[in-house]
Design brief:
This protein is an alpha/beta fold. Among the domains are: 84 residues, Gyrase A, domain 2 (2-Layer Sandwich), CATH 3.30.1360; 95 residues, no CATH class. It is built from 21 helices and 13 strands. The strands form four sheets. It has a four-stranded antiparallel β-sheet with strand order 1-2-4-3. Strands 6-5-10-11 form a four-stranded parallel β-sheet, with helices on both faces. β5, α5 and β6 form a beta-alpha-beta unit. α20 packs antiparallel against α21.
């Protein structure tokens, strides 16, 4: 089915043509003056320039052609040349009835599905998962879900940081603590133990201790760097330790991401890219792109159009070590070999912008990806505390994700226990769903690139632009539908009839733009647009509901129409929340 804006635009195009003008002036948009009209067309203003006429004359001529058109209740040409449109309630009802039998409520799948690799999550193995990685996971998951909704083949890769200095730090800290381990014996010839020399709990304590030590102890830091380099060049004992670190960390990471309802297709990491590095470097050298500079190997990426000077991309340090960029380039080589994506989307802190600009440019320059492959970096801002500084624990430390989620759930649980609206047996699970909605929506409702303040009080409120408010609206509709089924078990939801009130029409207009809103959100990789839409839809529903006694209505077909209408609202909220990775509890 066509989106409503396309339907309206087609009508206007016909009218422009019939009045003797280029049809392309007929583009219709949602009104920015909802007090005056529902939709508008501003084409007469542009046409006026081309045809050297007064805009209002063109607008009037077009409006005349639309007189009696069954789609519109009102077509008005107003100064200086706007065409204001109001839909006919019958047409609008018919459109919603069509939506009701469409699996995606009128949202259209892409004509040519793409293969999209989305690189998000980005946790660093053996370092605690903290709120910095939260945004990447939450936003990336939503974009992945949107891509699938529109029929694309989306491959989500967690791209773990599993090959960096943290590994050397852990190795050296372990040596200091347990020098007798076989991994540290010079001439050890046997098999390394299958059991890891640490538990998850110990590992979680080892890394921060090592990291702190390296800041005070220069020699220790150097040892850690050496160990990292040796690990990367294949040192058997360090490789064995690395495998233990991975085996102990990964199940915990998976558990954490599962708790967030974040699911990756690929659990690859920087380490998987290592085998591609020698070919990458050779290729860059052979193509004459990489050259030596102060002992390092670099590739120029500056372009004339740059507004500021961009430094070259370093692909090998003077000590021979590969860098972050090297590993990202090598990863692209692997992705090209395995998946041939049409599009790459990377999520990371916006301070990594230069890094990704460098990587993308080298990838294109060297022909690792095709020129028409889209490579996008979605940089996000910082999650701040109420003091406006990056979010910390009360003691000033880095907040661990698990602790944060635990805090949220406890607060939500005590609130729903106060309300006494959720059966006791469901309380924990409901608190989890609401808490996660609070956290995710609090993040997703902001433009990704902006910093935002983590305000738990506000995020968990059932009122205002919050996740729980949207969930609450959906739950409320569910409960009306259940009561209706109990009261009238023999009745089926009817056809949606023309709106009987302005509140009802406003709700119907919101519903009608579901497909457009979702498409715009994915087109701009902007989950906040999904939030904006469902917030407005929820508001429209709640004010309609406030004015309408659905269950007490005597006119059976009117009641059936309302039931069909709110069923559609419920489905729209469900689909949109699914795109955000938010579940809907059965009671709230
Ligand atoms: N591990 C990185 C970090 O914690 C994020 C990885 C982002 N993805 C990438 N392909 N570079 O900052």
């Amino acid at each position: 089915m066509d989106k409503i804006l396309s339907v309206l635009t087609k009508e206007l195009e016909h009218a422009f043509a019939a009045a003797g003008y280029e049809p392309s002036y007929g583009r219709v948009t949602v009104s920015n003056r909802p007090d005056l009209c529902e939709y508008q067309c501003n084409g007469a203003m542009a046409a006026a320039k081309a045809y050297k006429k007064k805009p209002i004359d063109i607008a009037n001529a077009v409006a005349e052609r639309l007189a009696g058109n069954p789609l519109f209740d009102e077509v008005q040409a107003v100064m200086p040349g706007f065409i204001n449109l109001k839909l006919s309630p019958e047409y609008l009802a018919g459109y919603l009835n069509q939506m009701a039998v469409h699996p995606k409520l009128g949202a259209q799948e892409a004509e040519t599905p793409q293969t999209i690799v989305i690189d998000y999550g980005g946790a660093n193995v053996a370092k605690p998962l903290h709120v910095g990685h939260l945004r990447s996971a939450i936003i990336g998951e939503s974009i992945k879900r949107m891509g699938r909704f529109f029929g694309h083949k989306v491959i989500g890769d967690v791209h773990l940081g599993d090959w960096g200095l943290q590994m050397g730090l852990i190795i050296e800290e372990l040596r200091d603590r347990q020098p007798e381990l076989p991994y540290f014996q010079q001439n050890f010839a046997g098999e390394y133990p299958a059991e890891p020399p640490f538990t998850l709990g110990e590992l979680e304590e080892i890394y921060p201790a090592a990291s702190a030590k390296s800041k005070e102890d220069e020699a220790f830091k150097e040892r850690a760097q050496q160990a990292t380099l040796q690990l990367q060049s294949g040192h058997p004992a360090y490789r064995a330790l690395w495998r233990h670190i991975m085996n102990v960390s990964l199940p915990d990471l998976k558990k954490n991401y599962n708790n967030l309802n974040v699911f990756f297709d690929l659990w690859k990491g920087e380490s998987d890219a290592q085998p591609y590095i020698p070919d990458l470097i050779e290729d860059l050298v052979q193509k004459g792109l990489a050259y030596e500079s102060q002992g390092a190997l670099v590739v120029d990426i500056a372009q004339e159009s740059d507004s500021k000077e961009l430094p070259p991309c370093i692909v090998r340090k003077s000590d021979g070590a590969a860098l972050y960029a090297t590993s990202d380039l090598a990863t692209i080589m692997e992705r090209e070999k395995l998946y041939k994506p049409n599009r790459y989307i990377y999520l990371a802190d916006k301070r990594q912008e230069l890094h990704f600009t460098q990587v993308f440019r080298v990838a294109k320059k060297a022909g690792i990806v095709k020129q028409d492959t889209s490579m996008a970096f979605l940089g996000f801002g910082t999650m701040n505390g109420r003091d406006g500084k990056p979010f910390k624990t009360r003691e000033g430390g880095v907040m661990r994700l698990e602790a944060l989620i635990g805090d949220i759930n406890r607060q939500v649980l005590s609130r729903i226990q106060e309300n006494r609206t959720v059966p006791e047996a469901e309380a924990m699970e409901t608190a989890r769903m609401i808490g996660l909605a609070a956290l995710k929506y609090g993040d997703l409702s902001n433009q990704a690139a902006k910093d935002y303040v983590f305000d738990l009080e506000r995020f968990i409120s059932f009122e205002g632009n919050t996740g729980p408010y949207i969930q609450y609206t959906a739950v409320r509709i569910q409960s009306i539908l259940e009561k209706y089924r109990q009261q009238y078990p023999e009745r089926k939801a009817g056809e949606i009839l023309a709106a009987a009130s302005s509140g009802e029409k406003a709700l119907m207009l919101e519903l009608a733009r579901f497909g457009e809103a979702m498409e715009a959100a994915f087109g701009e990789t902007a989950p906040h647009k999904v939030c904006q839409y469902i917030y407005e839809l929820s508001n429209a529903f709640n004010s309609f509901y406030h004015d309408t006694k659905i269950l007490a209505e005597q006119d059976e077909s009117r009641q059936g129409s309302w039931i069909a209408l709110i069923t559609l609202v419920r489905r729209a909220l469900g689909l949109a929340l699914e795109l955000l990775g938010i579940e809907i509890p059965s009671h709230m």
